[in-house]
């Protein structure tokens, strides 16, 4: 939102001497390569052999999980860029018969 002053709302609020309720998040100025190197370096420094957990990203690197996911699509993409092993999702592999049973509609769902 821009006011008639030409300033964004938060800058306008700061201009009149107040502090905004919500700050605009700071942009990450690092490139993908620099982010990957930072992640790899911090993982190794703190003793995580196969990359640090997602919950420690902000604490150890200073950047949120969202920044890494925007740049690398997901955390596994980041792990691939750093040369770490991909952590498989906790998905149960289904057999063909189990999938058929799951996809069968119950009798009450067919009636309208």
* Number of extended strands: 0
H/E series: HHHHHHH
**Residue share in β-strands:** under 5%
Q: What oligomerization state is this entry in? A: single chain
Average the pLDDT over all residues and give the rounded result. 84
Coarse morphology: flat
Number of helices: 7
Pick out the low-confidence regions.
none
Largest sheet: number of strands, sense, barrel closure: none
As for the number of domains, it is 1
Q: Radius of gyration, rounded?
A: 23 Å
Q: Could you give the distance between the termini?
A: 47 Å
- Structural class category: mainly alpha
Helix content: 40-55%
Architecture overview:
There is one protein chain. The chain is mainly α. It has one domain. Helix content is 48%, strand content 0%. Helix 2 (32-45) crosses helix 5 (75-82) and helix 4 crosses helix 5. The longest helix has 14 residues, at 32-45. It is flat and about 65 Å long. The N and C termini lie far apart (47 Å). The mean pLDDT is 84.
């Amino acid at each position: 939102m821009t006011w008639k002053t030409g300033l964004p709302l938060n800058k306008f609020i700061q201009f009149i001497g107040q502090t905004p309720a919500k700050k605009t998040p700071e942009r990450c100025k690092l490139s993908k390569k620099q982010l990957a190197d930072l992640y790899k370096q911090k993982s190794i420094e703190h003793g995580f052999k196969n990359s640090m957990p997602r919950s420690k990203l902000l604490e150890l690197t200073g950047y949120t999980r969202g920044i890494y996911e925007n740049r690398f699509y997901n955390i596994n993409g980041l792990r691939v860029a750093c040369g770490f092993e991909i952590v498989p999702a906790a998905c149960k592999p289904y057999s063909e018969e189990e999938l058929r049973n799951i996809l069968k509609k119950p009798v009450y769902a067919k009636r309208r």
